[in-house]
Amino acid sequence: MPDGLLQLPGIGRERFLRRYWQRKPLLLRQALPGFAPLLSRRALFDLALRDDVEARLVQRAGAQWSVLHAPLRARDLPPLRRPGWTLLVQGVDLHHEAVAALLRRFRFLPDARLDDIMVSWASDGGGVGPHVDDYDVFLLQAQGRRRWRLGAVAEPRMQDGQPLKLLQDFQPQQDIVVEPGDLLYLPPGWGHDGVAQGECMTYSVGFRAPPGDELLRQLLWKLAEELPAAARYSDRGRIEPRGAAHPARLPEDMVDFVAQAFSRLRPGRADFRRALGELLTEPKQEVVFEAPPAGALERRLARKGLRLDRRSRMLWAPGAIFVNGESVPQALCRSPLLRQLADARCLDAAQYASASDAERDLLRQWFRLGWAHAAGD
Ligand code: SIN
Ligand code: CO
């Protein structure tokens, strides 16, 4: 596969973004001609059985579905020839360089939206049922054929008594069969139901599109966690002896106390930017960075430059740079070199040589944490 961003043949990225992105589905036949699985079924199953990988097994028996979440054991997996089951492995890009490289081909969309690549393997008839996602997703067919039924869903209503969110009365308007190399784009909230026709593998490139209330809950939690310690509630000298008749009454001054504490929060745009940047660069839960082996790091860096670990998340904004859930110290928050690293995810030897002492100190810290490596390592 050639390096560089995905071309979207026949439409081009610009027209795609104007006409389809977040508006309506688009099927691109042979968007990646000759595309084949980047890891074998065996390698995918091995990954699914690891305890640092998010995976689930979905099976269907008639109208009843069942879901088994990781940690999965080898004996949980049904025989390959049994129809109607699928194994879905989340965040495969975190573990596999070729899959991470595929994800980078989608960087014509902002990193802040990029989530991960999920890879599914399904036996004949396998799928996860009719549903909607909170994500923009590109579904890349990697092996075998899959029938997709698609339809707009005005108000999603879910089936009762199922262990996964399945649409009730799904009314598809499109019915297509995809083959390896075909790419199907779906905006969030679009109903879809994919059923394997024979053994099949699908790569889902997901872009988070969180609902505002969910994002706000996470941001407020983060902002509240950072509040300086406040005075303790006190009712010294304020308890009315008459109140003994109503010990169950919530004291109004306790409500005032909480309201005042909340009004001190008053976040501004810079606080939101910082909280958002730190939140969006937080590594996935199961990511554990390893410290590098000791060795002639400086010499390797001077010769080759450096690259971010594929699991490192980095974003920048006016007056702020974020990496793996942290803000870069104030003195470096406008560093063009660090912005360059965030965009390109690597620095060549000449760029590394141009780093200031403070930038170099920070980058050395990132090496020690396993967030970055000498290029080529
Ligand atoms: C799958 O790969 O089976 C599921 C993808 C999806 O419907 O989001
Ligand atoms: Co889906």
What does this structure look like?
The protein is α+β, with helices and mostly antiparallel strands. It folds into 2 domains: 12-207, Jelly Rolls; 297-374, no CATH class. Helices cover 26% and strands 25% of the residues. The chain contains 10 helices and 15 strands. The strands form 3 sheets. Strands 1, 2, 3, 4, 5, 6, 7, 8 and 9 form a 9-stranded antiparallel beta sheet that branches. Strand 11 (314-317) and strand 12 form a beta hairpin. Helix 4 crosses helix 6 (269-280). Cobalt (II) ion (CO) is lined by residues 131, 133, 192.
Summarize, please.
With about 375 residues, the chain is α+β, with helices and mostly antiparallel strands. About 25% of the residues lie in helices and about 25% in strands.
CATH T-level topology of the largest domain: Jelly Rolls
Helix segment tally: 10
Characterize the overall form.
Answer: globular
Approximately how much beta-strand content do the residues carry?
15-25%
Structural class: alpha+beta
